[in-house]
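In pairs, describe these two lines:
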Amino acid sequence: MSHNCYKVGFALLLAAGCDYSGDFLFAQPVEGLDDVWVLTAENGDLIVPSTVTTIDEIRAATIYAEVGAPQTTAGGGVTIDFIGTGGAVCIWVDPETVTWNQSVASQSLGDFATKFTYPDNVFDDGDLDILGGLSVYYTGSPGETIGDFQVAYEDSLGNEIPIDLVTCPNTFDRFGGPSTAGRGFPEFCEIEATDAGISYTVLLESFASPLDDDRLSFGVIVTNGLCVGPNSLESVAFGGLVGSDLTDECLIQGESLMPDPNEFGPHYGFDAAAHRIWPDSIEFESQFCIDAGSDGAQMRQFCNTEADSIQAAGARCGWEDFDGSNPDLERCFCGDPIDTPQGGSF
């Protein structure tokens, strides 16, 4: 091949590079569903923290909605504004659906590991991270771009030093930043003493969107009082008992919503969202929570029954590009057993 051929090929590569946008790295936008928006009360006003004393009141105070996958490297998410009450306020969010790491240990490691021997369908799971604090410190532009709660302090030498003024979450990781829950797991933040009459902003930042439909549905509740401990939101949900990372998944149920091309919520209260909740999703979550301290037999039975039902119908799981319109594809909460790693494989 002549040098001229190499030159032509190189020129074509350069020309192709000029048109490179990187759009393929992002999920396709869902028409009508924003990736950055503001959640308000049903009447359009600011969210008012609810007082809940029963599980029915928790369901009535829960808001269900969706957020589109981020369209830029700036990220996306939903902001909530509320006015401080002078007391404690809890913000609890649960993104769809349930996630676990499959246990492939060759020997039994006890009930906890045995519970997760069935693979998970990771394509229907998403992740929202909470950041919150005084609205005056929020750097984002609500409804336009997301931000954080970091301000710059100039020292005596003229150096700008970032100061993190985030209030939520309440725990921090080994690097000093906010520590957040993993994919599909509920996340909460409690502000132990809000300033009465002062505005607070909470960002539910989209960390990961479900790959099956690029629509991250979630349930969120803002209540008076603490999230965990005696007389808390958690104690109301579980009858005074202390919850766990697994049982907390069932404090908000029904957050996995069926995609509708013309409707995105929000839905105020469990009953309002019921018509769009994926069939069997609540039962699936319940088995996950019920088995928290057992050998996992019930959840494995759910997964086995699901796989047998899909096979009998001659269908398959809609792992990707799933919108519910193809009768040959069915929504799967559990993974495909054939995806389980085998000995000697990678």
